[in-house]
Structure formats: structure tokens, C-alpha cells
Amino acid sequence: METAVVNSFFSVCLLLTLMFLGSVGSSNSCPEPETSCGKLPVRFPFRVKRRQPEQCGYPGFDLECSSTKHAVLELPGSVKLSVKHIDYKSQTIQLYDPSGCLPRHVRNLTLVPSPFQFIDRNLNDFTIFNCSSPRDGAIISTCLSSSAYHVYAVLSYREIGQLTLLFCSKIFNISSVPLKIFDVENTLHLMWSNPMCKHCESNGTRCGFKNSNIQL
Q1: What is the pLDDT of residues 41-76, one digit of tens each?
Q2: What is the DSSP letter of 211?
């Protein structure tokens, strides 16, 4: 009985997914297909909440436009990052932390079940340490450190015995993130695969829902 219910559930999910993907095309039922937040142009699959209706965007692509005219994307884990740039043709987005400390969010950051993936496919697990003095052989997070302590990210596959971690304490572990997340660049590069709108963008047309009556 339970197996039948599970199979039925996944069948419905698959059907809804196919309907949703099939509803995307070069036409657009959005009454305001393009808007902006500050200097950032916003169009499908993104939409600005409270400014555009739901059919103007794809689930998971909602943006907030802050009082300072900066677009903000919320990722799972309640991680809110500002949008630096969206490339609609390559389906990539650049995010940054306005406070200048992207590593501050790594503990809560997860891309499941968001529609986004890291562009960098070389992902690693890290262990974060708080040390009372500088250490060699580890990645320092300058923005998390202070004059009283130093915060380091250590690749988890390294044997702890290979490092000098005297007077250090483990803070937390993080999994499957790119090394560049600790760079001073303070930029997170993501991509999305669905909805597939790059062909419409390359042809100079706008991507959107073919039928605004489709509801999930």
C-alpha cells in the first residue's frame, strides 16, 4: 500500500514538472515582462516580488528590491545575497555580500533545493578553525578574523596531524563548496539549467510562460 502511494506521489510530481517545463517558451504572459532594480535589468526567469505578478518569474527566482535599489536573492538556509550581475544568455548570476564577508554565510549556505548550482565543479569539504595565533598551511578568512583571533578553513581530507593546530578550536564543518568562496573577491558565481531560456535570449526574444493558466 505504501509503495503504491509513493509511486503515485512521484508520478504526480513528474507530471507537474513536465507541465511546468513545457509551459516555458518564447512567448510571455507577463504584463510587465521586464523591469529593473537600480541598474540591474530583471526579466524571466527572475521577477521582482511585489512589483511583478507570479507568472513573470519561475519558482526560486524571486528577487527583493531593497530600499537602496539593490536586488537581493534568498537562497536556502535564509542566506540573502545581493545580485551583482545576471547573464541571461549564459544563465549565470553573480552574488555578493554587501558587508564584504561572503564566508560569513558558508555555514548556512546550501543550494538544495534551489534551482542554482556552483559554476565551479571542483567542490571541497572544509573544517573551520578559530586560532589564537597565525598558522601556516591553512586558508585564512580575513573578514572573519580579528586582532584577537584568526579564522582558518582547512581542507577536510587533510590529516589534522599534518597541521599545527595548537591553541585552535574547531568551529564547524562545511560541505561541497568551491575554494573561491573564501577569496577576497567576495563574489559567488552560480548557474541555472532550468528553465532553459538561453536560446530565446540568443535570438533576441524574451522567454516566458506560454500559458498563464497553468498553475502548480
Answers
A1: 999 999 999 999 999 999 999 999 999 999 999 999
A2: -
